[in-house]
Automatic annotation (TrEMBL):
One cellular-component annotation, GO: cytosol
Stretches assigned to the UvrD-like helicase ATP-binding domain: 342-618
Phylogenetic placement of the source organism: Bacteria, Bacillati, Actinomycetota, Actinomycetes, Streptosporangiales
Species in which this protein is naturally found: Streptomonospora litoralis
Positions contributing to ATP binding: G363, G364, P365, G366, T367, G368, K369, T370
Name the record gives this protein: DNA 3'-5' helicase
Chain intervals for the UniProt region annotation (Disordered): 119-228
Gene assigned in the entry: uvrD3
Amino acid sequence: MPQLAIDATCLPQYDKLDKPTRERLLAVTRKFRELSLDALLAHPDLRIRSLPAGQDPRIRTFRISDSWTGVMLAPESGETFLLVHLLPRDSAEAWAGDQRHDVNPVMGTLERRDATALGQGPDRAAEPGTPPAAAAAAPASGESGGAPGHLAPSAAEPAEDADETPGQLLDLPTAAPAPREPAPSFAAAPAGRSATAPAADPAAAGTAAPHPQTDGPGDAHPAPTPELLFDRVGDRDLERLGIDPEIRDFCRTVTTARELHSWAPALPQDQFEVLRALAEGHSVQRVRDEVVVPRRPAVGAVARDDYDTAIRHTRERVIVVNDNQEIEDVLAGEFNAWRIYLHPMQRELAYRPRFNGPAKVSGGPGTGKTVVALHRVKYLAEHLPLDGRVLLTSFTNALVESLKRNLALLLPPELVEDVDVVTTDKLALDVVKEVHPDIALRTDTQGFFANYARQHRLPWPVDFLFSEYRHVVTARGITTLEGYLDPDARAGRTTPLNADQRREVWHAISSVRAMMRTSRRLPAEDLHAEAARILGERSELPYTNVVVDEAQDLHPAQWRTLRAVVRRGPDDLFIAGDNRQRIYDNAVSFRQLGIEIVGRSFPLRVNYRTTEQILRWADGILRGRPVTELGDSSATEPGGAMRCVLSGPEPELYGAHDEPAELDALAERVRAWLGDRIAPADICVTARTNRLRDSIAAHLRARSLPASIFKPKEHSITDTAHGVRVTTMHGVKGLEFRAIAVFGATAEALPQLDRVTSAELDENQHQADLDAQRSLLYVACTRARERLYVSWHGTPSPFLPL
Ligand SMILES: Nc1ncnc2c1ncn2[C@@H]1O[C@H](COP(=O)(O)OP(=O)(O)OP(=O)(O)O)[C@@H](O)[C@H]1O
């Protein structure tokens, strides 16, 4: 029976079909699964046709409707049909005639190139640096031939580049400049939808086609003999990296990264990734390890004529559909792309057979860290020893709920049973309760400190006392007065305390803790200290592997529990997080907590969620603040450009005179989004405080706009699925929406100074608290997939990049 696969690069075209044509396409695709090969080829309605003689014999066109044609690859070997494009009838054959599909035997993938565009170029060797006019005839569909994947310079193999420094291959800017008009690409986010639709048909080819640039940085002052981009990579190396002779000859004439990018839509996708990585200055070895090896099939080489295997192996771009419902889901965009398509770097990390110890995945917002964590859980669950268990943990209930939902989509029920998904606090509570069943978690610790300080007329401001408890005593795991008197105990605190003062502070903190113990309600910090102690005495530990998501917000005491809950060894801890998004004031040193990451730290750099325009603007919120390493706040994250898969409108900013005017403008913005056919549930309005959240919801409702208050502690995100969600900035963490409105980005609200330690009390803590609030705004803005609207009244927040 024939099998149908869908090349995800054609999905954006589906959005352009009207309803009857979509239904017709679904009916046709079902036939591919239901009929025998002979019946299919002879079917009168489908009118399956080969291309004229001399063109790719594997390409067939078929009729969807009077005006739309499907293009598919119908390999001679096997029975897997690959739907490669949907086009207006009168242009389908011309487009299909330009394309060629080949198996890349080194990477085992199926690639498409625009053979006409590549073949028509003038002899560029004669005039290096001038892209051929043929580039203008590059793929009409507007989809990029190149995945937006990025070679992640990894700290994992520091020695690797010792003999080949990045940039050595070329005298280029280290990051290749983006093409002036990046073609929306689905090669790495295949089943998603671009915020910018690609050109619908070949008639639009003029605009969708690459625009070769000759004014890139490398061309500003053209030398008499421009240096060639890939001059220092030998033919043998190119071959080992999967570059075929045609592309090798092509790349021998390219002079700048910009020129290379302008050719992306015409180049075979995976080979373009290799060339892009080389152009970014990475060594051949690293490109092999990070681009080629992750793509290579486990089964070994794929023969050039084994299209069937190659189609199934091209998991980044091709979806093999198994039933009719799945066809519908895929075409209708209901399909969760992340379940199947991982960027090769994501896949490499999630499915690496073994890490010799704790491993860390970091990267900016929307780079798929959670996706990698979920796939890692899948891999670990599939390879559990008898009686083994995996813990998947995160910071808040809302995050844990969402992890649970997604895990259930990814894992079969029998594997889900081997995984506990709980907050880190719940984990500690369960451990402690086994020994002390009457213990509960206290959530009013700071208030408790305040009462104690008032009652006992302590000379210390309560903020100071609480901060000493949280950021010194429990963060550093100090258990004795002697420990607190140690000269290094308070390193980094800017308010000095002499020995007598330390004794007084210690006494006060110890008294508060004793009272909390007596009440049998422990604050999270103490609960974790107790859990870590209990676990430290056990010979049998509950988990084989621990996977942590949103790791940036965990307190050191929580890390001690996680360190103690799993035996040290291979694959013990897999940690995903991003310090840009740290919205709680926890600074953590993994090394001091016994979590040794060195050599197993991996950055992700392709953003799948947010448009380039939104991310670029939001990054301005963090300007001037160094992005620190997850688990090592004293080090800054290595630089490297982040790439966005999506493109769309610039964020919209609005400053009102007063709050009522700001509310009116918000209502109009939401109404306009709804008018743009963005569903209410795809819109979220977020504000700094509960008060604002409630008045926004009331205001929207008063204007007949559907608004639901979303409280992550009380609601699951599916509870409020029919209205525009209105929530706080903390509430939006871990979520994403097509459109986000950030309301009240006003100077008095951001930063909210009553939540910031005063600089007189502790300068470093003051800065850390400000940074946490800056990150809060950043997190809120980067939840937007396509549209971002930010408003304020009066003086705008100093965090805004205005
Ligand atoms: N390989 C992929 N293909 C398609 N979509 C992907 C891929 N990886 C991630 N995504 C999508 O990108 C979005 C962001 O992914 P995810 O939440 O894992 O990122 P993150 O790095 O954890 O984000 P954040 O740190 O901002 O919470 C999600 O919609 C996810 O489905």
